[in-house]
Design brief:
Pfam families: AraC_binding, HTH_18. The protein has 262 residues and is an alpha+beta fold. It has two domains: 10-153, Jelly Rolls, CATH 2.60.120; 159-261, Homeodomain-like (Arc Repressor Mutant, subunit A), CATH 1.10.10. Helix content is 37%, strand content 21%. It has eight helices and eleven strands. Strands 1, 3, 4, 7, 9 and 10 form a six-stranded antiparallel β-sheet that branches. α1 runs antiparallel to α2 and α7 (229-235) packs across α8 (241-252). The longest helix is centred in the C-terminal third of the chain and has 18 residues, at 207-224. The protein is globular, with a radius of gyration of 19 Å. The mean pLDDT is 90.
Length: 262
């Protein structure tokens, strides 16, 4: 593609004769990208806006201060809460032996953000020798550095059983729902005890803890969009802002007002 206008099709970046390629695109609110996978590994990153990315194994919330490392071949889908400025990296899996082979949430530092934005302005087939090649290598170094400190609390494990998936997706659409376990067992077409055992077996979490994680993921999306803490607390199903703040701090180590500056 050289200096020509950049394609906004991910397929055009899988065979580029460079270790890294950057796709830039603008997505409207409520944009949905159905399940797909890539030949290359991917750092899913939005420089503005909030995305939700769901794999067969987990759900991730991605505000501008975070990214998700997606190994090659991992099937995933994406949903944009509002308008999103996508600046995603496609990485040849052989580019660096330090890159992980599992999904990871990572903090996008100010330096990594600026490097990605600068890389998105370079020719797709940039010069390997010289400034452009060194810039791309520095991006790899910064990604590896960030991955060494993963932010695991940002992901919600997903079950494989279609009946449990149905329950989870219903809850993720509105985590504030207060229905009891019997109601969700009916949605799944299971008995209460069967649901409880199956849920823990497939996610590693009890149903109540999983619902709490889903609420926190939704809260992160709303906070990243600038919503006040009090409004977010009620929107995700907490009875008071203080209860929400206490749960948030237990999960992330900082109160919601400080999370994105941590």
């Amino acid at each position: 593609m050289g200096h020509a206008q950049r394609s906004t099709s991910s397929a055009d970046y899988q065979q580029v004769a460079r270790p890294l390629a950057v796709l830039s695109d603008e997505y409207p609110p409520a944009f949905y990208d159905p399940p797909h996978a890539h030949q290359r590994a991917q750092l899913v990153y939005a420089s503005a806006g909030v995305m939700s990315v769901v794999t067969d194994g987990a759900s991730f919330t991605i505000p501008p201060q975070r990214g998700v490392w997606m190994p090659a071949g991992v099937r995933h889908e994406a949903y944009c809460r509002g308008a999103v400025s996508l600046r995603t990296l496609y990485v040849d899996p052989s580019a660096d032996a330090r890159l992980p082979t599992t999904c990871r949430v990572l903090k996008v530092s100010s330096l990594l953000r600026e490097l990605i934005l600068e890389a998105s302005e370079l020719p797709v087939e940039y010069e390997l020798d010289g400034r452009d090649g060194r810039l791309m290598q520095l991006i790899l170094d910064e990604v590896v550095r960030s991955i060494a400190c993963p932010l695991t609390a940002l992901h919600v494990p997903m079950p494989q059983d279609p009946r449990l998936v149905r329950v989870c997706r219903t809850l993720m659409q509105d985590p504030s729902q207060e229905e009891d376990l019997d109601r969700w067992a009916a949605v799944a077409g299971m008995g209460r005890r069967t649901l409880t055992r199956a849920f823990r077996r497939e996610t590693g979490l009890s149903f109540s803890v999983w619902r709490q994680q889903a609420r926190l993921g939704e809260a992160l999306s709303l906070l990243a969009m600038g919503r006040p803490v009090t409004s977010v607390a009620f929107d995700v199903g907490y009875n008071s802002p203080s209860a929400f703040t206490a749960m948030f701090q237990r999960a992330f180590g900082v109160p919601p007002s400080q999370y994105f500056s941590a």
